[in-house]
Description:
The complex is a heterodimer of chains A (about 475) and B (about 475).
Chain A: E1 3-14, H1 53-65, E2 73-74, E3 77-80, E4 90-93, E5 103-108, E6 114-126, E7 130-132, E8 141-143, E9 150-156, H2 163-179, E10 192-202, E11 212-217, H3 220-239, E12 247-252, E13 257-263, E14 273-274, E15 281-282, H4 285-293, H5 299-310, H6 314-321, H7 324-337, H8 340-357, H9 369-380, H10 386-398, H11 403-409, H12 418-431, H13 433-440, H14 446-457, H15 464-474
Parallel strand pairs in A: 11-12
Antiparallel strand pairs in A: 1-9, 1-10, 2-15, 3-4, 3-14, 5-6, 6-9, 7-8, 10-11, 12-13
Helix pairs in contact in A: 2-3, 5-6, 6-8, 7-8, 7-9, 9-10, 12-14, 12-15, 13-14, 14-15
Chain B: H1 6-15, H2 20-38, E1 41-44, H3 46-61, E2 72-76, H4 103-111, E3 114-119, H5 153-160, E4 166-171, H6 177-183, E5 186-189, E6 209-214, H7 217-227, E7 257-261, H8 271-286, E8 290-294, H9 302-317, H10 336-347, H11 350-363, H12 369-389, E9 395-399, H13 414-418, H14 425-430, E10 434-442, E11 445-452, H15 458-471
Parallel strand pairs in B: 2-3, 2-4, 7-8, 7-9
Antiparallel strand pairs in B: 1-3, 4-6, 5-6, 5-10, 9-11, 10-11
Helix pairs in contact in B: 2-3, 5-6, 7-15, 9-11, 9-12
Amino acid sequence: MEWETVIGLEVHVSLSTKSKLFSGTASEFGAEPNTQANIFDLALPGTLPVFNEEALKMAVRFGLAIGAEIGERSVFDRKNYFYPDLPKGYQVTQLDFPTVGKGALTITLEDGTEKVIGVTRAHIEENAGKSLHEEFSGQSGIDLNRAGEPLLEIVSEPEITNAKEAVAYLKKLHSIVRYLDISDAIMAQGSMRCDVNVSIRPKGETELGTRTEIKNINSFRFVEKAINSEIIRQQEVIEDGGEVVQETRRYDANKDITTSMRSKEVANDYRYFPEPDLLPVVIDESFISAIKAELPELPDAKKERFMQEFSLSNYDAGVLTATREMAEYFEEVAKNCGDAKLAANWVTGDLLALLNKNDMEITESPIRSERLATLISRIKDNTISGKIAKTVFETMLEDDAGVDEIIEKKGLKQVTDTGEIEKLVDEVIANNPDQVQQLKDGKEQVLGFLVGQAMKLSQGKANPGQVNQLLREKIQ
Amino acid sequence: MIEKTAAELSQALSSGVISSVELTQSYLDRIKKYNAELNAYITICEDTALSQAKTADEKRAAGDSSPLLGVPLAHKDIFCTNGVTTTCGSRMLHNFVAPYDATVVEKFNTAGAVMLGKTNMDEFAMGSSNETSFFGPVKNPWDIKRVPGGSSGGSAAAVAADLCAMATGTDTGGSIRQPAAFCGITGFKPSYGRVSRWGMIAFASSLDQAGPLCKSAEDAALMTNVMAGLDKKDSTSIDKPVEDYAATLNDSLQGLKIGIPKQHFAEGLTAEVEKGIREALREYEKLGATLIEVDLPNNHLSVSAYYVVAPAEASANLSRYDGVRYGYRCENPVDLDDMYKRTRSEGFGDEVKRRILVGTYALSAGYYDAYYRKAQKIRRLIKNDFVEAFKEVDVIVGPTSPHTAFELGAKTDPVTMYLEDIYTIAVNLAGLPGISIPAGLSNGLPIGMHIVGKDFGEAKLLNVAHQFQQQTDWHRQKPNFGQEG
Lengths: 476, 485
């Protein structure tokens, strides 16, 4: 039987506010356990929450960025359950009136086509602390540094149909929240987390199948693998005559399988009700328009601009705007060298290859944008050829001297002296009489060969344009 | 001297008739002598009280004339006090010492009042007789076989027996006003949001409100002047200017329109309380007020709605008492579930457990609409009843409680106990200010008169109460308890 898959994602991003959602405690990553928890975070009796407006602004920024409805009146609710890393015994979240309502974002698929994925809602809530079971034998440790940190939970519509789309959606979200500067969104550190709802149904069927939820996957790659392994599992269950059970599952990366965590029978009744310690948050039009006015250029708009302004291809513009840092890097190179097209070629070509090879992010690039811009400038002003530039680029990795210094030191400066080039051209003509004849007979391709010979002779330093021109002049 | 009102003590202190240290010592001596019998205090702060009194005397000598400077008070043991145990009347917090002061406590400290100790209360403020306290019941000084009312029973008994000049309390459904009525003192619940709840241990967050228990409406005004105001630490506190509540106490009541809710003079009200209140109302007529019957058609729903909303909020508010971080933890738990179950089974008393169960049930999937949502709707109806009534009248007056103080152990059925607050609960649901003042005696027991004001109409309410006390001396009546020495 042919199956189709329906996927919905719940993504938590940790908002990078200076302090926690309802207390003044700082919320830095990686501090000593329990050093970032005050009397409210510890849920001492009589303490009360005070809403951090910075989190509200960030949520609204996100909402505006995905064209979502902004809740003029959002209401916090208590979600009740007992766990030692949840000090109050309830989590404060938004159930019926989230700050961000329906919106959408566009993903680009591998074949270059675009697809719009709906976002159902995004709500503000507080994080729980962390339980540490391994570090203490026979006991559990509780670290409340994370407790009360602001999260934005972004819920997608079930409009994703395979693992690759899911990853594209996640990457797009990642890109947007980083463009907006509202979250580090580092999956490995937990500042972006993803729960995946997966169900399958016979192709063409309109009813949804029973879904399972895979919790807390912490990398893009594992999201893809977890979904694929869960799809296969569900297919096998059904094809063997069984039924998919609605439950929460965990992805085991070592075995590349999902395993059951708990089934719905023992699921909690969270007994949500409006949080009486907080008033509803009412936002007016001027609050929203002030935030709108400060929105940065977002990836889709930037991509469009790159294509228009710099005549970049759809693909290149997509690569260069995939992350805010990449776009910033590119724009700096382009501005400093004055040639966006060349800048795009270098960034998407040699630089990206280098980064990929070393598994580096653009922020970790061993070549800073100003150096790359200088290198490109030297191509433009004919100091070096594009080919020699690749040699200089390699050298720049080991030698952090200035681009000009490297060119000078290694004697890579392009030969533009007409006399010297003439000598080269004469030598090539003398050494290749057959090819010269062929060119005279009209076999144009041979010109390339002859230019190549001259370049080789000059160890790549001759100006290819001049060589080309002289050869033509001499072989008439 | 100890029987005097805070306002009178303030004058005595400022004229040098007595020092705060002498006054504080007199109260401490009296507490030592009589507290064992009344059980009004859970914690007595002898040393810190005397040192605060000494500081107050020094400040007064240096020219500080703050009204409550050096006046000894007691805090209900629901307010967190830095370095002093705060039990909330529960085994769960029998050993809990907060590293912070509640905003109310901080404000009285700043005003220079002397804290004598922490008063007994129904466990987590859940009760109307002070019998649910882990630290044992409080006795009513008017008759020690009777209850002082609750949940602020310790504060009410302490004020009535002159074991302090004034006390703080909290009122979720009547917990200031009903014990004030039973103990023959003045008890005032301001509008919801008027006094910060920060550092006050939560029972039902949308209903809890702190207020004074004291010897006169004037004292209530002086205390409210200290307690009221916006607090950035409590998001539900209101950003409205605080009036000087003492300034308008002497305004004339000529032309005042008093609403008489027919539902508060109906079946269930005892004849002697009705008689007392009717007589008190005649005093108001003498002062130039007119009485107008008003209708509160949804009043009969208030107790039911309250016993859904309050337990629902409490069920979540009390989840933090899990034995993990502070307070009571059971011995040798075998695992997490065992720790939770035994800690909470052993740490909470029956009434608290009953309300947690009721609240949990009311919020459960499938019951939420039938209970919690419906109760919230009723709450709006009740609020609306008052809005309508206040279009016709300035204040609403009736009995605080259907009867006078009952005997310890007399009410064993929880629902009967819940009906204790039939006249007071609606005021919490509507968020309005309400005061109970002494309005007579019946068989040697005080009768409380309940006056309800408009939203943030504290000043008018206190003015109305004060004028009655200028006309009568019911608030000067003292129990025989402790009079021999």
